[in-house]
Amino acid sequence: MSWTPERIEELKRLWDAGHSASEIGKQLGVSKNAVVGKAHRLKLAARPSPIKRGGSTARRRPAAAQRQAAARAATASPFVSPPVASGASNGASSGKAVSASPFAAPEPERVRARARPARPVRRSLGSQTCAWPIGDPGTAEFRFCGEQTVPGKPYCAEHCALAYITKKKEEAA
DNA sequence: CCCTGATTCGC
DNA sequence: GCGAATCAGG
User: Could you point out which of A16, A31, A37, A168 has its C-alpha 20 to 30 Å from the C-alpha of A103?
Assistant: First the structure.
């Protein structure tokens, strides 16, 4: 939708009335950014700005500009993106390598689990314990199920039923 | 997290 | 001119 005189008028009115950009945006059916951008272009009263760029330390355009340009290019261009992705030869290997941990694929709901201390999973070879996560990872209460696993599976029978969802089950649910 | 407005820049 | 992405403060 374009900025018709009426809409601009409305924008001015609401902006002048002290409404927030997102609020005005809702009213006019546009995004907050659109409102702010238009207001800026119209030179409307630059109301109390939350932040100020370059107010104190000034000049730091290059970095921001580069990032923006990069982001822009990344989303817009069909090409662009081949940079390193894997095999980073230099540090920064913060990847926790989740691999095929208990959290890997199954269970859609609580997959939020990060690569937590997934160590206690196997402890004793004689009787594997169910690696089904219980509770919120990161909290003290977090633990794994610990029941005897189904041979060849990382979970107990009960949790295998939950972990391995079939298409049919999914549709039934 | 949510919110805010400001700025940049591809379109 | 437009506005998404990004930034940066509350």
Answer: A168
